[in-house]
Amino acid sequence: MRQLDADPVIRARDTAFRLLTRREHSCAELHNKLTARGYDSDVVGDLLASLAAEDLVSDHRYAQALMSHRVSTGYGPQRIIMELKDKGVSAEIIEQTLSSAEVAWDELLRVQHNRKFGGSKASSFKEWARRAQYLDRRGFSTDAIRRVMGSWDHATLARDDSGVDINA
Hints:
With 168 residues, this protein is an all-alpha fold. It has 10 helices and no strands.
């Protein structure tokens, strides 16, 4: 029998298996992909319940996998939280995943800073802000950025680019 003639439930299950063999998916992400391919939402919902009961799809496992990958590529907790929310993972699972993670976020931030900018300190406020914005986009909090990079010395801000004190 050709695949086009097969039962939609069987075809949806086969498609889900093909997607899951490539990588983990959240339930919501898998639901969106299957419905986008034309499978009925009720069929997909029943299929996902069946796959979850068989532990073939798991938001916990997906969250762990995504977090592990993102940490290894140097992303911070805020970026990881945003991505997990975008993929439909519940706030409870996100919280459990982050709290069970043994990640030294400040050290990861320091490594990312040194990888991108070397060990040098910023020579101007503009440079400091550029570095802070880069780390912010990577998903690190403002407090963590200040802890690692330090706050910009406001006495330095009182000088213009030529080094002349503009408050004098």
